[in-house]
Amino acid sequence: MKPYRRLIRYLGPYQLIFVASLAAMALGSLLDGFTMILLIPFLRSLFGQAAVMPGAGNLVEKVLEFTVGGLIGGTDPRASLRNVVIVVLVALLLKNALFYAARVFSMVVREGIVRDMRDQLYGHLQRLPLGFFDRIKTGQLVARVFTDTNQTKEIITHAMADVLRQAISLFAFVAMLFIISWKLSLLALVVAPLFLGFLKPMLWRLRRGYRGAYDAQGELTSMLQETASGARLVKAYGAEKFEHERFRETNRTFFKHMVRAERIRLLGSPLSEVLGSIVTLIIVWVGAQFVFRGELTAEAFLTFLTISLRVQAPIKTLTTFPARAQLALAAADRFFEILDTGIEPVTAPGRELERFEREVVYEDVHFQYDSDEPVLRGVSFEVKRGEVAALVGPSGAGKSTIVDLLPRFYQPQRGRISVDGVNVAELSLDSLRNLLGVVSQETVIFHDTVRANIAYGTADRYSQEEIEAAARAANAHEFIERLPEGYDTLLGDRGVRLSGGQRQRIAIARALLRDPPLLILDEATSALDTESERLVQGAIDRLMANRTVIVVAHRLSTIQGADKIIVLDDGQIVESGRHDDLLTQQGPYRRLYEMQFKRGSD
Fold first, then answer.
1. Secondary structure class of 104 (helix, strand, coil)
2. Which of 288-292, 363-367, 471-475 is the most confident on average?
């Protein structure tokens, strides 16, 4: 379905306001056209003639006599002229009041639709699979949520306010022209569309140019975000010139696309004006012939010319609208591209799992990302309730991928993962993820209070005492109390006010408060100093107590007491067993252990 048709669907909740806007525009446009016809009695009164000619056979006189004949039909030219001026003034005031009301109604509709679009897009983003966020840059998402939805406002603005108002004005003006002279009006309607056909070839090139410009703008947003968050790295490596040149090149691409598109768009206005002037000149020449032959009075012809000139504005707006609309339609394309991305797989109805009781089983699991290179090949293992299973192996062996499959961040291409015998693919996401707690090495802290970060997403479910108890168990309560406003302290973007160890303890308190029966733990102590590691490890020990845990282990010293150690290499399980048993086998685990032990002793 074309973007503009999809955009119209957002009009549904605002139908009454939209109709009120149309009604106000229609009445205002009719009054606008009527003030033009009042030029005829004005000119007559100005030159001492009767303002209205009762009993005249033409339609103009009938309209004037029916509407304002009683006000301006007197015999005194001065009084008639005064009354005509008063009628024109009243009509102008009413017209502008109606146009103001129409614009206000249209603005409410426009801003409401943009708000609804952003709400829908953000809600859709929350339901997209994790793989989508691996493929798209954050800056592109920011551009599509804000810039693109804001640009679609332009087509809604023109379509509902300017274009519709001008269309109604055009209809009113054309009706007045037909009342004055149907022959001249018919001539204009025949000649004008022939010239308007010249504008069509520009539209496709215009839309393509704007799409390229928006893509480049998204890249600029991504670069700005990356370099702002990575400013320390940029400076440490002396890469300021490199980043500037990279930004400059993309900015140059944006400039080229935008200039090319704008050059075509700006051509529409003078082209339509020239074509409109040609149509007007043709009408002037033919109309003069009618006056010479006595088919049209001079004042009627002057009024016809005046209205014809007023017609140029709505014609210009309507003819250039398709060109202006390409900017918004290119943004709408990008908006709907995200909205059309499939959400996380819908689950079978009724598959809920309220508690975890027996085991987690991986059976012959195969997985690969978008590339052709497999990441997991035939992985099978079982973790019973209450056990701690550690995943170890070299970087790139597939450890993190295994734990990402359990909460269905990704879907395996082959094989099966089950919880208590139920395939996780058949469980509702809420049911599955309510059983899980995840603490990763890359801790996420939001720009919110300490309390909101610990009770993330469920702030109204837990009391202050429960939040503090979780913080104490995570060895976090003491440093939180020392913050300026304690649990009400705002932590800043990505938790910049906290050290790495403090951020990890906040994350552990978050998991402790949720109290999940199944825990996924990407060991959080590898990047910490000795004191922070001691405090975090103590919190992790409390977190792991009486839970079923799958640990992605980097330091083998932290998982020696695990019930099961699974050694991975190149996406396959090469060993499995307890620490002591694996050491005696002289296999990959022993080599990893000796490498770490030797490195630690050095």
1. helix
2. 363-367
Best CA proximity match to 195, nearest among 97, 273, 78: 273
559 exposure class (CB count in 10 Å sphere: 0-12, 13-18, 19+): buried
CA dihedral 423, 426, 429, 432 (to 10 degrees): -30
pLDDT at 366 over 90: yes
Question: Are residues 269 and 316 in contact, defined by beta-carbon separation less than 8 angstroms?
Answer: yes
CA atoms of 125 and 370, how far apart (whole Å): 20
Distance of CA 543 to the CA centre of its chain: 38
Give the tens place of pLDDT for each residue, 73-95.
Answer: 555 666 666 777 777 788 888 88
- The DSSP output letter for 449 is B
Residue 579 · residue 565 · CB < 8 Å? yes
> For residue 555, what are its two tokens?
């330091």
Cβ-based neighbours of 523, under 8 Å, separated by 6 or more: 441, 551, 552, 553, 554, 555, 558, 559
Residue 47: how many CB atoms within 10 A of its CB? 10
CB of 579 within 8 A of CB of 551? no
b/e map 450-479, b = 16+ CB within 10 Å: bbbbbbbeeeeebeeeebbbbbbbbbbbeb
All domains of the chain in start order, with CATH: 3-202+266-339 (1.20.1560.10), 442-515 (3.40.50.300)
Can you tell me the mean pLDDT for 522-539? 64
